[in-house]
Write a structure and sequence with these properties.
This protein has 237 residues and is α/β, with parallel strands linked by helices. The protein has one domain: Spore Coat Polysaccharide Biosynthesis Protein SpsA, Chain A, CATH 3.90.550. Helices cover 30% and strands 25% of the residues. It has six helices and eleven strands. Strand 2 and strand 3 form a beta hairpin. It starts with 8 loop residues before the first strand and ends with a helix.
């Protein structure tokens, strides 16, 4: 039976950052939680999604930690050298993917430091994107906190939060369309902080799929304890 091309999907994990806000000499994606690096948890979640054919991890040029991961030799995991910014790393991974992924294959981009994402949420995002008429989509959660616009440590105004969502990952788009959007943003000098913002500049549409608040991004030291608690709870479920 021929492969269902409409279902082909790949994953990209930009993991070339140093994580300076953690205040550690070890890049945050390699910091251990219960003896296992954050990146290992992240890769395990992606590899547990049956529809993902392979994962491309963008590493720093001087990465000395990757080879210590048990999944470094996994047949579905490939690596490329990333860039200075997240968008550069994702683009490098997309350039590598074009050698074996079709133009219309779906690509999920997921933060290396989001180890708590639920496999069911990744699958739900894929289902919604495939079934919808948008150009792609992302996990996100509604903003619950009151938001203040601040300048020089002074509150200027309170921001209406009713239509605001906090973007998470994965974010999912067609391989060629995302590659082109990132290339055009780079050529135009447009700074993009995630894949959806790059697609927006080209006029693409994206659906929001509500995720979970525990899909946290480990950024600061206190996030390690929270991620540890979440991962332990997931193992007990």
């Amino acid at each position: 039976m021929p492969e269902d091309l409409a279902r082909r999907c790949w994953a990209i994990v930009p993991a070339a950052g140093s994580g300076t806000r953690m205040g550690s000499d070890t890049p945050k994606q390699y910091l251990p939680i219960d003896g296992k690096p954050i990146l290992a948890y992240t890769l395990e979640k992606l590899l547990a999604v049956p529809d993902i054919k392979g994962v491309v991890v963008a590493l720093g040029p001087d990465d000395a930690h990757w080879r210590t991961l048990a999944l470094a030799g996994h047949p579905k995991v490939h690596t490329v050298t990333g860039g200075a910014e997240r968008a550069d790393s994702v683009l490098q991974a997309l350039n590598a993917l074009q050698l074996f992924a079709g133009a219309d294959d779906w690509v999920l981009v997921h933060d290396a430091a989001r180890p708590c994402v639920q496999v069911a949420d990744i699958e739900r995002l894929l289902h919604r994107v495939r079934a919808g008429d948008a150009d792609g989509g992302l996990l996100a959660i509604p903003v619950n906190d009151t938001l203040k616009q601040v300048r020089d440590d002074r509150v200027k105004t309170t921001v209406d939060r009713s239509a605001l969502w906090a973007a998470q990952t994965p974010q999912c788009f067609r391989r060629q369309a995302l590659q082109r959007a990132l290339q055009e943003a780079k050529a135009s000098g447009i700074a993009v902080t995630d894949e959806t913002s790059a697609m927006e500049h080209g006029g693409a549409s994206a659906i929001v799929v509500e995720g979970r608040a525990d899909n946290i991004k480990v950024t600061r030291q206190e996030d390690l304890l929270l991620a540890q608690a979440i991962l332990r709870h997931q193992r007990e479920e």
